[in-house]
């Protein structure tokens, strides 16, 4: 689509973040500057050069000009038409837009620019978190050391010579046992040579991975009664009959502002009652109990990970949740139970203070992800295994997490089917020479149960499910 056509269609908006264009032909030197230092003076708070707006701005990736979005005074659109500079980046959600394609775009060529602006937007926040954690850890270590010294002194006074000898003998035995265990683990490498579920189970059982990152999607909640979104017969296929420009419009913030009744009339299926976690949810908790889980990043808003017992410290709900709600106008908190009643009755919940519609604290398309998402995203670099389960990796920027792990870290996919996004294209499931990527296609719960059995974890897994 040309820039002229984009101008004609500007009122339609560009709400295609869930399905970005992966083959944009305009990623050339004529359209964007690859030099990261070129953007050194640009900040997330930089105002629009034309109207000084600091709300919804974009930066032109060709000249570095900061302009406001089409929902303010559309200065970036005008800039693109006047200059033919096609590629820009949103400060709100760090998405990329090509005005010549009239579409959101994604490409490995944009990866370094994305990282640079992620750092600009979130580094200070994540740095502060890390600094606080570091200070707390240092204080805890000091207290622990003091306690240890007191304990040692008491022990010296109370222990007899015979008890000391017994303690020394016990320590030697433990060292030998630990050494043997380390030798066993060393024999099991991180490489996937056979790419079988048995091989994966062998690695988990041996404790090869200590910092597992999970990326979870709607596929893990289907068996709990939550409707799948993109599969045939899923939620989006049902709303296609309504004549919307695209099914995801139901969850776009701009459509919600203008037609909130659309969301309230169609979302009843999203909050079914009496839901129970699936075996896959309990598997996440099992990994936490075994001290092998670093973090679970989930797209799901159902909260079933927490219902399975997963600690909030190990869970990042990237797309928000249904635990609370707020007015989109004055931001006043709205009673979530009352809002759910409105959804069930297909009536809009309005704020009693300003009259604007209330919305659950779910991230809609067009809204930025929570700040904690980006601060935790940097943890991906520490992961020693990535498991992608129940997601087709088409929603950005969530899908970009899969590309943030170190280049030698194994990536395991468990899903009903394989996708065709740019992220999927970077996974080498079928390459006989690749020892990093492996995929298990089928029902998530069935694969997880088989994996647990192969690991020899059946008893504790069943006990965990009964306890919760």
TrEMBL record:
Residues 134-144 have a biased composition (Acidic residues). Residues 22-121 form the UBP-type domain. One of its GO terms (molecular function) is zinc ion binding. Residues 129-173 are annotated as: Disordered. This is Protein acetyllysine N-acetyltransferase. Gene3D superfamilies: SIR2/SIRT2 'Small Domain, TPP-binding domain, Zinc/RING finger domain, C3HC4 (zinc finger). Pfam families: SIR2, zf-UBP. It comes from Blepharisma stoltei. Residues 145-173 have a biased composition (Basic and acidic residues). The active site is at residue 319. GO terms for cellular component: nucleus. PROSITE patterns: SIRTUIN, ZF_UBP. Its cofactor is Zn(2+). The keyword Secreted does not apply. Keywords: Metal-binding, NAD, Transferase, Zinc, Zinc-finger. Zn(2+) binds at residues 327, 330, 351, 354. Residues 190-458 form the Deacetylase sirtuin-type domain. InterPro entries: DHS-like_NAD/FAD-binding_dom, NAD-dep_sirtuin_deacylases, Sirtuin, Sirtuin_cat_small_dom_sf, Ssirtuin_cat_dom, Znf_RING/FYVE/PHD, Znf_UBP.
């Amino acid at each position: 689509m040309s820039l002229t056509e984009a101008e004609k269609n500007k009122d339609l908006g560009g709400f295609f973040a869930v399905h970005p264009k992966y083959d944009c032909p305009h990623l050339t030197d004529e359209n964007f500057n690859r030099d990261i230092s070129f953007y050194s003076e640009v900040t997330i708070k930089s105002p629009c050069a034309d109207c000084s707006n600091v709300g919804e701005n974009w930066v032109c990736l060709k000249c570095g000009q900061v302009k406001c979005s089409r929902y303010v005074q559309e200065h970036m659109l005008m800039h693109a038409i006047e200059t033919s500079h096609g590629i820009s980046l949103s400060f709100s959600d760090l998405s990329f837009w090509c005005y010549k394609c009239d579409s959101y775009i994604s490409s490995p060529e944009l990866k370094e620019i994305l990282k640079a602006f992620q750092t600009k937007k979130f580094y200070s926040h994540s740095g502060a978190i890390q600094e606080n954690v570091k200070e707390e850890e240092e204080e805890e270590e000091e207290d622990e050391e003091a306690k240890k010294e007191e304990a040692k002194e008491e022990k010296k006074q109370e222990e007899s010579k015979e008890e000391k000898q017994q303690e020394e003998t016990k320590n030697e035995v433990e060292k030998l046992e630990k050494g043997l265990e380390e030798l066993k683990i060393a024999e099991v490498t991180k490489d996937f040579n056979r790419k079988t579920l048995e091989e994966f189970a062998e690695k988990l059982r041996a404790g090869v991975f200590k910092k597992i990152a999970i990326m979870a999607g709607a596929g893990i909640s289907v068996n709990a009664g939550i409707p799948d979104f993109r599969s045939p017969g899923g939620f989006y296929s049902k709303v296609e009959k309504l004549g919307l420009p695209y099914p995801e419009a139901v969850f776009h913030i701009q459509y919600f502002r203008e037609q909130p009744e659309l969301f309230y009339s169609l979302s009843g299926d999203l909050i079914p009652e009496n839901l129970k976690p699936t075996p896959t949810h309990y598997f996440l908790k099992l990994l936490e109990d075994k001290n092998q889980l670093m973090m679970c990043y989930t797209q799901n808003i159902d909260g079933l990970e927490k219902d399975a017992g997963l600690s909030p410290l190990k869970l990042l709900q990237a797309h928000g949740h249904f635990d609370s709600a707020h007015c989109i106008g004055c931001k006043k908190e709205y009673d979530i139970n009352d809002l759910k009643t409105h959804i069930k009755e297909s009536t809009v919940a309005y704020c009693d203070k300003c009259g604007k519609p209330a919305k659950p604290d779910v991230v809609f398309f067009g809204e930025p992800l929570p700040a904690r998402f980006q601060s935790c995203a940097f943890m991906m670099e520490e992961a020693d295994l990535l498991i992608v389960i129940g997601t087709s990796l088409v929603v950005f920027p969530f899908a970009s997490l899969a590309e943030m792990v170190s280049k030698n870290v194994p990536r395991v996919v468990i899903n009903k089917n394989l996708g065709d996004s740019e992220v999927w294209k970077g996974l080498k499931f079928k390459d006989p020479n690749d020892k990093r990527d492996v995929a298990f296609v089928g029902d998530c719960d069935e694969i997880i149960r088989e994996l647990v059995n192969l690991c020899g974890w059946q008893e504790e897994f069943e006990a965990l499910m009964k306890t919760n």
